[in-house]
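Hey, sorry to bother you again with one of my protein questions. I've been staring at a protein lately and its backbone has me curious. I owe you a coffee for this, so here goes:
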Amino acid sequence: MTKQKRDDNNSKIYSISPSKLKEQRQIILNLYNSGIEPDVIAYQLDISQEEANKIIKEDEEKKKELEMKQKILDASPSMGSSFYLDAVVNIDLAIRNAQTRMWKALRSGPEFNISIEGTNKILNQFSKSKVTFVILHIDLVGSTQLSMTLPLERLTTIIQTFSQEMSIMIELYGGYVLKYIGDAVLAFL
């Protein structure tokens, strides 16, 4: 992906290669981590402050995600310590958010936006190595009974919302959805 930029006179447009973008991104992060404010960085590199802030924010989000994953790895039972899920995820808040999304979905239909891109990256990363995973199979209890008593559109909404919520919880705990099987979710941690 190349980015276009105008010269000082706004007369000529030139492209920045992906390698230059990566280099510029690293320069921005190095300057910011050295204590230089984003507005100064933007001015010195002749970019908009929004661009600098966006790069800094993306980096901070990646750091938070890595810290969370590291906490999960550090608390792994295989290391001999106890694994307290409450230390990683606020369970009460997660339940309240899930209930809110469920009621909203039952009223107006689910927003089914699940990606397994992260799953593919992890599987490719470990495809040629031996690694231990925990396999998780989650099934919607009573779905056969529901299928005989509910209208199809209502049953579909419930199954989609269930799949969405389970996917969110799996991701919160550092897991990855492998596939969806009817009213079940197959995941690994």
